[in-house]
Amino acid sequence: MKLLIVNGYIIDPEQQVNAGKNLLIEDGRVVGLLDRSEPLPEDAQMFDATGLIVAPGFIDLHTHLREPGQEYKETIATGAAAAVAGGWASVCAMPNTDPINDNPAVTRFMIEQGQAAQLANVFPIGAITKGSGGKELAEMGEMKNAGIVAVSDDGRPVPTAAMMRRAMEYARGFDLTVVDHCQDVSLSAGGVMHEGKWSLILGLRGMPAAAEDVDVVRDCVLAQLTGAKVHLAHVSTRGAIAAIRAAKQEGVNVTCEVTPHHWTLTDQAVSDYDTNTKMSPPLRSQDHVDAILEAMKDGTIDAIATDHAPHHIDEKALEFDQAPFGIVGLETAIGLAFDLVHRGLIDLERVVEMCSTSPARIFGLTNRGSLKSNAHADITILDPQFEWTFDATQSKSKSRNTPFHGRSMHGAAVATIVGGRLVYLHPDFGRITEMKQRGAAAK
Ligand SMILES: [Zn+2]
User: Fold this and answer.
1) Which residues make up the environment of ion ligand 1, defined by Cβ < 5 Å?
2) For residue 412, which of 131, 352, 361, 423 sits 20 to 30 Å off, Cα-Cα?
3) Which of 180, 307, 339, 378 is catalytic?
4) What's the pTM?
């Protein structure tokens, strides 16, 4: 089974390719990139990508899929459908399910559900501690054998430096990346939004930026001490970024991700008490957003991750204080990333790198995040010019908790290929390519 993606523009940061080429895949693997002048193999099925960007399949390092245990919010199948509709060929599923993914039985169940859905690749992340309780290390080796790609107690920060040190030392032995949700709960307890001008105006308890800064500094110090691979989830503060930048300069093995909502919105968005602006870490003030944008540009931030966190509409319908933290994000992330490209803040190669090449490297996903020969044929096809409006009511996710309903977007993922199979095609794809072809013919 051969598939040839013709007339597209290939961006593959790993091979430093940024050129118009054809891409040949066969039996779920990349055969190679072909120059446009090379004869087309006759037995291949054709996919016309005229005017479109062909990139390595995007990998979301931070997705909450809610199965097992909270299937009313999301199942692995619905989450995977939302993923591929948003351009994500792979999702790394956080372990805060019910039961927690702290043992190989849950890991295997998640992998099987992902395979049964036949949409995105689903790579489970195992818990750092049993029940993510912060007291006793989980059986990382057994979970690794079952298929986890990293460990995290996301949602709950690892409470003490001593426990984090032991977790890093243990994970290092299994070559697993440790992912931490950095937040010193002794500083942030009871907070429901960013501590600052808006929390004062709104009369809501704030979480100071320092709560994140303190934990990020701790984890950078411990990463240096242990030599473990440490990845800091959803960084959102100027102080956290400064600490990571300094640690990287020292050669410490630390990486980090940022979410689209943390660069798109500020804490001012909370002003009408919309619970779809409540997440952890919280939306920050403009100064922190500026620091995130600088760090995306200078390479301090390695990856874009969604922190897709589905909640039922009734749960989010509570008072701001009472509602759960988190928003869905799989279908809006790439549109919001294109916003930065169109504003001239970062270039498209950087977006592709932060969504594919770097995530694959951070979790050590072999033969992914690149279009080199023999890589898994996971491909994300983008139209940088497509104008659309996000309609949450049409989402593939079971949940609708997003502050981006009705937002105009410029740029989208229009097709997603996983393991050589076309698993998502934008409903307007025919119209998009027809316009592109007409445009190309006119030139
Ligand atoms: Zn988190």
Assistant:
1) 154, 181
2) 361
3) 307
4) 0.97
